[in-house]
Amino acid sequence: MNDLYKIGRRPSIRRAKSLRMKQAAERRALHVRETIRALHSIESKGFVFTNSLKVVGEVIGHLKAHGIPYEYIDGGNNWSYAIRRLDKVNGEV
Fold this sequence. Notes:
Elements: H1 2-7, H2 9-44, E1 47-50, H3 53-65, E2 70-72, E3 81-85
Antiparallel strand pairs: 1-3, 2-3
Helix pairs in contact: 2-3
């Protein structure tokens, strides 16, 4: 068992775990940034286009929690998901 420490295998396992944790933190941060952008877009513009199902879930949860009517719209070829508020027209209430 002491040979593992002499060869250097334990530090590489720790390094790999550290890199995985760093990547997971970066993915969480990216998800938070995408969600905030989408919420800002739905509030200011009245619609949002995204390819992330998690972001769509967050936006729909926000709309349902505040009793805001919405509908799914066609995202075209570039976007998987698109949502539009029904109480706003061209970004105005």
